[in-house]
Each structure stands twice: as structure tokens, then as C-alpha cells.
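Thread: quick sanity check before group meeting

JM: Hey all, I'm pulling together slides for Thursday and realized we never actually wrote out the predicted structure for the chain we discussed last week. Dropping the sequence here so it's in one place. If anyone has concerns about the input, flag it before I start.
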Amino acid sequence: MKFRPNAKVEEIRRRTDHPIVDSDAHQLETVPVLLDYLRDVGGSNMPDRFLAFIAHQRRTFEMTPDERLDTRTAMPVWWPIPTENTLDRATTQLPRLIYERLDEFGFDFGIVYPGIGLQIITLPGMADEELRLACARAFNTCYADLFGEFADRLTPAAVIPMHTPEEAVAELEYAVDVLGLKAAVFAGDVLRPVPRFAREHPELASEVQYQDCFGPDSPYDYDPVWAKCVELGIAPTSHSGPIGRGSRCSPTRHQYNQIGGFAEGGEALLKALWFGGVTRRFPTLNVGFLEGGAAWACSTFTRVIDHWKKRNAAAIGHLDPARLDQQLFGKLIDDFGHEKIQAYRDPLVENSLWMPSPEELDDWRACEVSTVEELAELFLPRFFFGCEGDDRMNAVAFDTKLNPLGSRLRAMFGSDIGHFDVVDMRDVLGEAWELVEDELIDLNDFKDFVFRNAVKLHGGMNPDFFKGTVVEDAAAQVLQDDA
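JM (edit): ok, ran it. Output follows.
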């Protein structure tokens, strides 16, 4: 078959002088092939355990609407992959077909993330440690084998579980040193039992859980993982999503649960890393947050900057209860207070509030900053945001008038091909180009969006990331200019 780009793609390529890098494509793994690898890694019974896990994950579809309402079980995604568009359906599953169609899409290079493999690490994840580790090893070996011959234009992302730092480091080392993989998707969060409930009501340990995002409140120190990423030249990326509870739990509507879900998960992870001082301790570590867009990142960046101005270690002193002029406050109550308020004059004047320890006063203590600019420097060069092409809010990342300090956030184009929200793979680049056509971004912004930022994310960690690929020279120039 011959695959030619449509007129829109041809126009975009004529008007641009740079490669197009897809920072987030997806595959649909062939289950029988995965089971062969899983059998090799974990033994003859491991495939059945994996299939049982998948069946358990899909049990929601066997529940009646009333049963979902009774248990407040979130409606998951159904029909998640292309079907009517048979060519796209096959492309999702066949690495060679993705490779052959790249020019048709207008892409020079693509980073391909898992499909089924994401279930190992996205919430609720695999609680079975033996199954989790076997799946990560088997899936990563499968990816390396199936995509190896296409390395000049495609590279697969390894799956890295994060229940403990030790398991993450072990799989990272194997994926990079043994399999030769150079991109990786990490669990962005892990569900853990709330300690008190686990002690007092062990039967509820799997029901009463919290979301650990590996930050300052985690029961584990994840610095060894970040150190290993720096050592191996791996930029950790994440497809965090909602946990299907709380404000994002509709038992009847999947889209209610999904819209904003990746942003919600990405924000939780980003704040954990930022507040936890990870980018302070590891100043060369780049981190990618995929599929959530950039609008949430602009909002988080703005809000944290604004909050820091009013509640940093020095500024928060103006809220110290000890600074209340009790004599003046009492007089004002006497002179202006309603009699019902005057009846409580003395306890109001005493103003006894909870007093945190001196260390607790500074929520940003792990960042070790004294200015807004220093706080921003721990965010702007280190965090990257994967954006689907049809999201008009991607333009906000490049709006220097809107973002604090005249900032540009590092938004990256991710096609998301292989998922249900891509109706036709040939149209994805054209949707991203609409930001230029509508004058929401300019050609320089577009170059950052579809090329330079993806190069900086991965090439900034590993200068050889694009070596041997069709974009090697152009990527090297970006890294040289950035340095």
C-alpha cells in the first residue's frame, strides 16, 4: 500500500523548516504475544494471572447501573480504540504499519507509549507485586523486540512501576542497560492503605486508601529513582489520571470521569515533585506530564507563584496570631461590635489559634528559595507538558503576557494516535496547526510545540537520545542552542 500525506499535511511541511516529533503516540499490544513473553519471564501460570487481573479490571461492565450506583463505582472507558477506521485500527497494533505511515501523518519521529501496558502502572495499578514485576519485564522486552528494527523513526517507552524505589530502579536498569530502551513511562501515583485503618481495620485496607505521588509525604524516599534517571539519561514521563473517586466518580458517565482527569493526576504529581524539592536536588532532571494539556500547568504555576508571595517563610509572619494588637482589637469590638459579638469579646481578643512548629511554617522549605524567580526556576526548565493537537488551550503555554514573569511553558505535541479520541490519524497534525492559522501561536511557538520541547525533554537528559535517527542533526542543533 502507498501512503501519501493529505493536502493539509503537505502545506504544513512546506511552511515549516524543522522536523515534527510526536512525543506521545500509543500502541495496542497483541495480547497473545504479550502472554508468550509473560510466560517466558514469569512461568507457565503467569499468563492466567494476568488475564484474571484484566477480567477483574473489567468487572464494572458486568455490573448493572444500580449496582454501580450502590457501590459508587466509576464508569470506566469502553470502546477505547479505533474500529470503523480499519486502517487506523491495524496501525495501532502493527509497529511496521505505524512506521510506514509516518510520512502520511507528517511526523519525522515518534515516541510510542504502551496501551495495555499502562494498566500496570496507572491507578488502581497492579497490587500483586509478583505479577506487576513480571508484567513490566515481559512487556518491556516485547516492546524492545517489536520496535527494534524501526529505531531510526520510532522508539518505544518502557513501563516503570513505582510501588517501591527498589523495583523502579531495578526495572530502569534492565530496560536501559539490557534492552537498550531510552524512553520510559512511570507510575505517577500509587494507592496505599491509610496506616491507621490498615492497623485497626485490616479488612478495609484495600478500600480506605490514599494517593502517594512520591513527594514529601511519601513513606518511601524516591531520590534513588531520580538519581538513577539522571545516571541513565532517562526523562521520567507519566500518564497520571483520576482515581475514579471523589469529585470524579460518575457511575454512569465515563466522560464525566475522564475530562480533566489527566490534568488532575498530573497536577498532583507535579506539586509533589515541586514542593518536595526534587528539582532542587536534581537540577538536570526533566519530567514529562502527558495527555493533560498545558492549561492546568499554567494555572498551577500561576497559583503557586501567587501563594508563595503571601505565604512564604518570611511573608507569612504577618499572619502570626502573636502580632495581633489585643488592646486595639478589644477597643474596636467595644466601640463598633454588635452586642452579640461583644458578648464574646475576651475569647476573640485572646485569638488562640493552632501554632505550627517553626519548620512547618514554610510549606516550600524543600525548595530552598528566597525569591519568586528562584521558585520559577525549579519549574520552568524542568517540567514538560504533553498536549493533544486538538486542544486550543495549548496556546496558553506560550502566552507571555498571561503567564507570570513573562514565562513560556514547555508544551509538547503528542498525537495520542491509537486511542479513541483520534478519529483519523491523518488529521492530527492539521489540528495542531490550527493554532497557527487562528493566530493563537506563531511559527516559532509551533516549532517549540512540535519539535524543540520534545528534544529538550529527552535530549536534555540523554544527548544521544536522537543519535542514529532521521532527526539526529536537527536535534543536536536544538541541544547546542539550548546549552
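AS: nice. The longest helix spans residues 129-147. The chain has a mean pLDDT of 94.
JM: adding both to the slides.
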